[in-house]
Specification:
Radius of gyration: 24 Å
Distance between the termini: 52 Å
Shape: globular
């Protein structure tokens, strides 16, 4: 009981929080990379001389005072600290603290090891346990949202709703989600990982031993339901997802599809270009000659994804432009369409849903979406480390800012209570899916 109390206290005391891997647009990274590298390569830049500091404006950090205080604290550590100091870990802690002080759960510092882990590609294949995990942005609690049938997590008895408490015996309370997954849960094929979860209203402590295996993430699944209703489930937006989605829809069309349900429940987002290509594929031509998404930073500058004369385009106030998206092939969804969402549908999945709603191209069914309407840049610092920094809001075509609000479905339906912790929910008992089918009828 004492360890559980410590766990919950850990979540309530200033944990670093990361809800989902969000949209990563690296349009300005190159310039910042060059500036960062120049500073890192010049040792003289590290010597702070107070008279050389610029005049402070209101809200600026006073690095002269900070440097003086840091030296004072360091002297105390040298004189009184009982254990050996790890200078590298202390330095990392300083940078972590700087980012934490922004009070933004999405802005994070990555040391060299963590940044290398972050650079894993989005091929849809990894060595892990076969479960999806999301993190509450205010408490830091990491919760299992989906367990894939036949995956190691499924075989070990993991359930949706389980709270990740410990991994390998180490308390992971409040750990940034990307690092929790890449540095603790994933690992070498065939190796085993012990994951302790808290389960149910009583927070029962359950220890699971799971063997890591090569996992092929089913980013898109599809099947034909009764009455020629096509069903496409999109788990996340990886680099392969838009092509898999097109193939799924074409297969359903060849079977005589008369209606379509696109399931984005528990979809945490992913690669933005894939979402834009999917929208261009499903939206009718007469609804495509305009914006799909735009962003704005604190100065009112931003990026725009839009369609003009049947061609996808991207341009930016920062001077970047891309007309190289694939040309539309004249395809559009000409059958009634519904999109399923819930509270874990976030970021890129909200981009898709928002455009469908704004252009009235389909009906949205489920519960309020997560509400992540901000953009992060992953910015390398030139020495093997990096920061992820929130740089802009993004908006649906109509100009709606969904951040911390989410999107409201046209038909609001909660998933039945008894289904929320089942590893596998049959489509015949999925009341949200049944509601979407009824709405299409």
């Amino acid at each position: 009981m004492e360890s559980k109390n410590k766990f919950w206290k850990g979540f309530l005391v200033g944990a670093l929080v990361m809800a989902f891997s969000g949209l990563v647009i690296v349009g300005v990274s190159a310039g910042i990379f060059l500036i960062g590298k120049a500073v890192m390569d010049d040792p003289s830049q590290a010597r702070l001389v107070e008279e050389d500091l610029p005049v402070l404006e209101e809200g600026d950090l006073n690095f002269g005072e900070i440097n003086s205080k840091m030296n004072y604290i360091q002297d105390i550590i040298k004189q009184y600290y009982l254990f050996d100091e790890d200078p590298e870990a202390v330095e990392d802690g300083i940078y972590l603290g700087l980012m934490y002080g922004l009070n933004d759960p999405y802005s994070v510092y990555y040391n060299e090891e963590d940044y290398a882990s972050m650079l894993e590609d989005t091929s849809g294949e990894y060595c892990g346990i076969g479960a999806m995990v999301s993190q509450n942005r205010s408490t830091g609690i990491a919760t299992v949202t989906k367990v894939f049938e036949g995956a190691p997590s499924f075989e070990a008895g993991m359930l949706p709703g389980d709270i990740i408490y410990k991994v390998g015996g180490e308390d992971v309370a409040g750990m940034e989600l990307d690092l929790l997954v890449s540095n603790y849960i994933r690992g070498e094929e065939g190796s085993k990982v012990k994951i302790t979860v808290l389960r149910g209203d009583a927070n029962e402590e359950v220890e699971l031993t799971i063997e890591r295996r090569q996992i092929e993430v089913p980013t898109v699944e599809h099947e034909m339901l009764e009455d020629n209703i096509g069903y496409v489930y999109v788990m996340q937006f990886d680099s392969v997802t838009s092509q898999q989605f097109k193939e799924a829809v074409e297969d359903l069309e060849s079977q005589g599809m008369e209606k379509l349900v696109i399931d984005l429940r528990d979809n945490p987002g992913g690669v933005l270009d894939g979402v834009v290509e999917m929208l261009a594929y499903v939206l009718p031509e007469d609804k495509m000659d305009g914006l799909l998404l735009y962003t704005e930073d604190k100065d009112g500058k931003g990026d725009r994804y839009y369609c003009e004369n049947g061609k996808l385009k991207y341009d930016s106030d920062y001077g970047y432009k891309n007309d190289e998206f694939p040309k539309r092939d004249g395809h559009e969804i000409e059958v009634p369409m519904a999109v399923l969402v819930n509270g874990n549908s976030a970021s890129a999945s909200e981009v898709f849903t928002g455009a469908i709603q704004d252009y009235e191209a389909g009906i949205v069914v489920g519960t309020q979406t997560f509400g992540k309407g901000i953009v992060q840049n992953l910015i390398p610092l030139g020495d093997g480390t990096a920061i992820k920094l929130t740089t802009a809001h993004y908006y649906t075509p109509s100009g709606f800012d969904l951040h911390q609000v989410g999107l409201t479905p046209d038909v609001e339906v909660e998933l039945d209570e008894e289904l929320r912790t089942k590893a596998v929910v049959e489509k015949s008992e999925d009341n949200q899916l049944l509601a979407a089918i009824e709405a299409l009828k």
